[in-house]
């Protein structure tokens, strides 16, 4: 069983494309508590960007909806990021996780989940058609030498 988080924040915002940058920056600021390297911060920012963009583009294709971002830090230097929507959901999660698969238009690469998986230690996806999708991203940040345990 997972230990209790040492810090946590939850925020909800509308599925406007401008809020992708907000979510990305909020995640970077929050994870800064763990003194990550620039590469680690960029990994988190990129994964959050992909998860939030997926919710904006695919969950609410014809309307605005709410997206919840939950950021949690654990004592083992792990950051866990939950991105949740109550949108259209994903019919076939396994297929959606395949590289180049997209339900979006020709501007979409279909690489969102692949990118998340390449930058995070773990990516979990739960979805119910008509009810929404939850993506949970986890990454352990390396403990810096000389910092207290």
UniProtKB/TrEMBL annotation:
Which InterPro entries has this protein been placed in? Answer: Anti-sigma-factor_SerPK, Anti-sigma_F, HATPase_C_sf, HATPase_dom
Q: Which reaction does it catalyse?
A: L-threonyl-[protein] + ATP = O-phospho-L-threonyl-[protein] + ADP + H(+); L-seryl-[protein] + ATP = O-phospho-L-seryl-[protein] + ADP + H(+)
Residue ranges of domain Histidine kinase/HSP90-like ATPase in the record: 39-143
Keyword tags? ATP-binding, Kinase, Nucleotide-binding, Serine/threonine-protein kinase, Sporulation, Transferase
Q: Which GO terms describe its molecular function?
A: protein serine/threonine kinase activity
- UniProt cross-references to SMART domains, sorted A to Z: HATPase_c
One Pfam family in the UniProt entry: HATPase_c_2
EC number of this enzyme: 2.7.11.1
Domain of life of the native organism = Bacteria
Q: What family is reported?
A: Belongs to the anti-sigma-factor family.
Function field:
Binds to sigma F and blocks its ability to form an RNA polymerase holoenzyme (E-sigma F). Phosphorylates SpoIIAA on a serine residue. This phosphorylation may enable SpoIIAA to act as an anti-anti-sigma factor that counteracts SpoIIAB and thus releases sigma F from inhibition.
What is the name listed in the Swiss-Prot or TrEMBL entry for this protein? Anti-sigma F factor
> From which organism does this entry originate?
Pseudoflavonifractor hominis
Q: What taxonomic classification does the UniProt entry list for its organism?
A: Bacteria, Bacillati, Bacillota, Clostridia, Eubacteriales
Record gene name: spoIIAB
